[in-house]
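[Q] Does anyone have a clean structure-token version of this?
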Amino acid sequence: MLAIVAAIVFGLGFLLDLIGVRIPGGFSGMTFVLLGLTLLALHQAGVGTAGIRTGSGNWRGRARR
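[A] Here you go.
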């Protein structure tokens, strides 16, 4: 889910950078790029993964059976 949000944020940052628009409050295209990179890092760390798994429901538990 965080990867999808990061893609949207990257798209917004790209459009703002192309147009050269600065949003009041210091937001620019680079701000959205950095936010997108942060979201991708959280996604890679497993923060945004959804699922209710108990016991040996992870991939390691299935491989051992």
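[Q] Thanks! Anything notable?
[A] Residues 3 and 44 are 9 Å apart (CA to CA).
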